[in-house]
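Sequence in, structure out.
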Amino acid sequence: MYNWSHIDEETMKREDPEKYRLWRLTSIIESDCIDEKLDRAEVKAAWPVIKDQIDPWTRRAIEYILWGTTSSLPANLSWWNKPPKTTNSPGGTT
């Protein structure tokens, strides 16, 4: 995976291995896991720390894959975060 964020990975890995590991997991998840497979146990262990740094929709998908739950977002959110349409509009259409 090519990282576009101008971070010196070798220095980060050497100076703070735990921070590097969490950053690396987050960057792999955010890049749609294209080039590398993730270790399920490693993601589960790091999840409490990295979950707030991940896109809400991606977070919801990962939570469903790992635990079978979609509890991080309310179920009534639409894609564009607009309130749901109501059926009692003046013209009778929604």
